[in-house]
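Schema walk-through. Below, the input block comes first and the output block second. Nothing else is stored per chain. Lengths vary across the set, and this one has 217 residues.
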Amino acid sequence: MKKRLILGMAFWTSLQCGMAQSLKKMQWFNEPEQWKIENQALTMYVTPQSDYWRISHYGFTVDDAPFYYATYGGEFEVKVKVTGDYKTRFDQAGLMLRIDHENYIKTGFEFVDGKFNLSTVVTHRTSDWSVIALDKPVPYVWIKAVRRLDAVEIFYSFDDKEYVMMRNAWLQDNTPVHVGLMAASPDGNGFNVTFEHFKVKHLPDLRRQEWLKKNAE
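--- output ---
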Protein backbone atom coordinates (compact mmCIF):
# COMPACT_ATOMS: atom_id res chain seq x y z
CA MET A 1 0.00 0.00 0.00
CA LYS A 2 2.82 2.37 0.95
CA LYS A 3 4.67 1.60 -2.31
CA ARG A 4 1.49 2.25 -4.33
CA LEU A 5 1.02 5.60 -2.58
CA ILE A 6 4.61 6.65 -3.32
CA LEU A 7 4.23 5.73 -7.00
CA GLY A 8 0.99 7.66 -7.20
CA MET A 9 2.58 10.74 -5.65
CA ALA A 10 5.50 10.52 -8.09
CA PHE A 11 3.09 10.29 -11.03
CA TRP A 12 1.13 13.39 -10.00
CA THR A 13 4.34 15.27 -9.26
CA SER A 14 5.57 14.56 -12.80
CA LEU A 15 2.30 15.88 -14.22
CA GLN A 16 2.50 19.05 -12.17
CA CYS A 17 6.07 19.62 -13.32
CA GLY A 18 4.96 19.52 -16.95
CA MET A 19 6.56 16.16 -17.76
CA ALA A 20 3.37 14.29 -18.68
CA GLN A 21 4.76 13.69 -22.19
CA SER A 22 7.70 11.35 -22.57
CA LEU A 23 9.77 12.25 -25.62
CA LYS A 24 11.07 8.69 -25.74
CA LYS A 25 7.55 7.35 -26.38
CA MET A 26 7.01 9.49 -29.48
CA GLN A 27 7.74 8.41 -33.05
CA TRP A 28 9.44 9.69 -36.17
CA PHE A 29 8.13 10.63 -39.57
CA ASN A 30 11.24 11.16 -41.73
CA GLU A 31 13.75 10.33 -39.00
CA PRO A 32 16.96 12.39 -39.35
CA GLU A 33 20.38 10.74 -39.31
CA GLN A 34 21.51 12.52 -36.15
CA TRP A 35 19.34 13.08 -33.07
CA LYS A 36 19.29 12.48 -29.33
CA ILE A 37 17.06 12.90 -26.31
CA GLU A 38 18.74 14.13 -23.16
CA ASN A 39 17.35 15.83 -20.05
CA GLN A 40 13.83 15.92 -21.52
CA ALA A 41 15.08 17.78 -24.62
CA LEU A 42 15.26 16.66 -28.25
CA THR A 43 18.26 17.77 -30.30
CA MET A 44 18.61 16.95 -33.99
CA TYR A 45 20.67 17.83 -37.01
CA VAL A 46 17.99 18.73 -39.54
CA THR A 47 17.96 16.74 -42.78
CA PRO A 48 19.40 18.85 -45.62
CA GLN A 49 17.12 19.84 -48.52
CA SER A 50 13.93 18.87 -46.64
CA ASP A 51 10.61 20.64 -46.14
CA TYR A 52 6.79 20.50 -46.02
CA TRP A 53 4.90 22.35 -48.75
CA ARG A 54 2.08 21.69 -51.22
CA ILE A 55 1.75 23.17 -54.71
CA SER A 56 0.83 26.87 -54.33
CA HIS A 57 3.18 29.63 -55.54
CA TYR A 58 6.21 27.34 -56.00
CA GLY A 59 4.45 24.62 -57.99
CA PHE A 60 5.97 21.63 -56.17
CA THR A 61 5.02 19.35 -53.27
CA VAL A 62 7.47 18.09 -50.62
CA ASP A 63 6.79 16.05 -47.48
CA ASP A 64 10.21 14.90 -46.32
CA ALA A 65 11.38 16.95 -43.30
CA PRO A 66 11.89 15.47 -39.79
CA PHE A 67 8.77 15.34 -37.59
CA TYR A 68 8.74 13.76 -34.11
CA TYR A 69 5.21 13.27 -32.86
CA ALA A 70 2.49 11.64 -30.79
CA THR A 71 -1.20 11.37 -31.68
CA TYR A 72 -3.91 13.26 -29.82
CA GLY A 73 -7.67 13.49 -30.17
CA GLY A 74 -10.01 16.19 -28.95
CA GLU A 75 -8.96 19.63 -27.79
CA PHE A 76 -5.55 20.48 -26.36
CA GLU A 77 -2.80 23.04 -25.82
CA VAL A 78 0.75 22.31 -26.95
CA LYS A 79 3.89 24.37 -26.46
CA VAL A 80 7.66 24.09 -26.76
CA LYS A 81 10.83 26.14 -26.48
CA VAL A 82 12.91 26.17 -29.69
CA THR A 83 16.59 27.05 -30.04
CA GLY A 84 18.25 26.73 -33.45
CA ASP A 85 21.53 27.42 -35.21
CA TYR A 86 19.81 28.76 -38.34
CA LYS A 87 22.20 29.30 -41.24
CA THR A 88 20.51 29.28 -44.63
CA ARG A 89 17.40 30.77 -46.22
CA PHE A 90 14.23 28.97 -45.05
CA ASP A 91 15.89 27.10 -42.16
CA GLN A 92 13.01 26.61 -39.72
CA ALA A 93 11.89 24.78 -36.57
CA GLY A 94 8.82 24.61 -34.36
CA LEU A 95 5.54 22.75 -33.88
CA MET A 96 3.48 20.76 -36.34
CA LEU A 97 -0.15 19.64 -36.12
CA ARG A 98 -0.80 17.14 -38.89
CA ILE A 99 -3.86 15.15 -39.91
CA ASP A 100 -2.37 13.83 -43.16
CA HIS A 101 -0.17 14.88 -46.07
CA GLU A 102 -2.82 17.34 -47.33
CA ASN A 103 -3.88 18.84 -43.99
CA TYR A 104 -1.36 20.25 -41.54
CA ILE A 105 -0.12 23.36 -39.75
CA LYS A 106 3.57 24.03 -39.11
CA THR A 107 4.68 27.05 -37.12
CA GLY A 108 7.81 28.39 -35.44
CA PHE A 109 11.03 30.25 -36.15
CA GLU A 110 12.26 30.72 -39.74
CA PHE A 111 15.34 32.38 -41.22
CA VAL A 112 14.44 34.27 -44.42
CA ASP A 113 16.64 36.67 -46.41
CA GLY A 114 18.98 37.26 -43.50
CA LYS A 115 16.19 38.01 -41.01
CA PHE A 116 14.53 36.03 -38.24
CA ASN A 117 10.80 35.52 -38.60
CA LEU A 118 7.90 33.93 -36.79
CA SER A 119 6.39 31.75 -39.47
CA THR A 120 3.22 29.71 -40.04
CA VAL A 121 2.29 27.48 -42.97
CA VAL A 122 -1.31 26.24 -43.15
CA THR A 123 -2.02 23.49 -45.66
CA HIS A 124 -5.39 22.19 -46.83
CA ARG A 125 -4.55 20.59 -50.18
CA THR A 126 -2.48 23.69 -51.00
CA SER A 127 -0.20 25.65 -48.66
CA ASP A 128 -0.19 29.28 -47.57
CA TRP A 129 2.54 31.09 -45.64
CA SER A 130 2.50 34.02 -43.20
CA VAL A 131 5.44 35.63 -41.39
CA ILE A 132 6.12 38.18 -38.66
CA ALA A 133 9.58 39.72 -39.07
CA LEU A 134 11.61 40.35 -35.91
CA ASP A 135 13.62 43.53 -35.42
CA LYS A 136 16.62 41.62 -34.07
CA PRO A 137 17.79 38.05 -33.47
CA VAL A 138 16.57 36.29 -30.33
CA PRO A 139 18.26 33.29 -28.67
CA TYR A 140 15.08 31.19 -28.58
CA VAL A 141 11.30 31.36 -28.89
CA TRP A 142 8.35 29.64 -27.27
CA ILE A 143 5.60 28.47 -29.63
CA LYS A 144 2.13 27.51 -28.42
CA ALA A 145 -0.89 26.17 -30.29
CA VAL A 146 -4.39 25.77 -28.86
CA ARG A 147 -6.85 23.50 -30.64
CA ARG A 148 -10.50 24.32 -29.91
CA LEU A 149 -13.30 22.80 -32.02
CA ASP A 150 -12.37 23.47 -35.67
CA ALA A 151 -9.78 26.20 -34.99
CA VAL A 152 -6.13 26.37 -33.94
CA GLU A 153 -4.81 29.55 -32.33
CA ILE A 154 -1.04 30.01 -32.54
CA PHE A 155 1.00 32.13 -30.15
CA TYR A 156 4.63 33.09 -29.60
CA SER A 157 6.55 34.22 -26.54
CA PHE A 158 10.12 35.10 -25.63
CA ASP A 159 9.75 34.31 -21.91
CA ASP A 160 6.94 31.68 -21.59
CA LYS A 161 4.89 34.29 -19.73
CA GLU A 162 3.51 36.83 -22.18
CA TYR A 163 2.11 35.19 -25.33
CA VAL A 164 1.03 37.03 -28.48
CA MET A 165 -1.31 35.46 -31.03
CA MET A 166 0.18 35.22 -34.52
CA ARG A 167 -2.42 33.15 -36.39
CA ASN A 168 -5.89 31.61 -36.18
CA ALA A 169 -6.36 28.75 -38.64
CA TRP A 170 -8.99 26.16 -39.48
CA LEU A 171 -8.30 22.49 -38.76
CA GLN A 172 -10.91 19.77 -39.00
CA ASP A 173 -12.27 18.85 -35.59
CA ASN A 174 -13.27 15.44 -34.22
CA THR A 175 -10.21 14.03 -35.99
CA PRO A 176 -7.02 12.64 -34.42
CA VAL A 177 -3.98 14.87 -34.95
CA HIS A 178 -0.26 14.08 -34.99
CA VAL A 179 1.29 16.69 -32.69
CA GLY A 180 5.00 17.28 -32.33
CA LEU A 181 8.31 18.83 -33.26
CA MET A 182 9.23 19.76 -36.82
CA ALA A 183 12.31 21.24 -38.47
CA ALA A 184 13.27 21.76 -42.11
CA SER A 185 16.17 23.03 -44.20
CA PRO A 186 14.77 23.43 -47.74
CA ASP A 187 17.62 25.48 -49.18
CA GLY A 188 20.52 24.42 -46.98
CA ASN A 189 22.72 21.64 -45.67
CA GLY A 190 20.94 21.27 -42.34
CA PHE A 191 21.50 22.80 -38.91
CA ASN A 192 21.31 21.95 -35.21
CA VAL A 193 18.08 22.59 -33.29
CA THR A 194 16.96 21.84 -29.74
CA PHE A 195 13.39 21.47 -28.46
CA GLU A 196 12.83 21.85 -24.72
CA HIS A 197 9.85 21.74 -22.32
CA PHE A 198 7.53 20.10 -24.84
CA LYS A 199 4.11 19.72 -23.26
CA VAL A 200 0.62 18.81 -24.43
CA LYS A 201 -2.24 19.65 -22.06
CA HIS A 202 -5.71 18.17 -22.50
CA LEU A 203 -8.56 20.70 -22.68
CA PRO A 204 -12.14 19.66 -21.88
CA ASP A 205 -14.31 19.42 -24.99
CA LEU A 206 -16.35 22.63 -25.36
CA ARG A 207 -19.42 20.91 -26.80
CA ARG A 208 -19.49 18.39 -23.98
CA GLN A 209 -19.05 21.15 -21.41
CA GLU A 210 -22.08 22.97 -22.84
CA TRP A 211 -24.14 19.76 -22.82
CA LEU A 212 -23.24 19.09 -19.19
CA LYS A 213 -24.30 22.62 -18.22
CA LYS A 214 -27.65 22.25 -19.98
CA ASN A 215 -28.23 18.79 -18.52
CA ALA A 216 -26.95 19.31 -14.99
CA GLU A 217 -28.54 17.14 -12.30
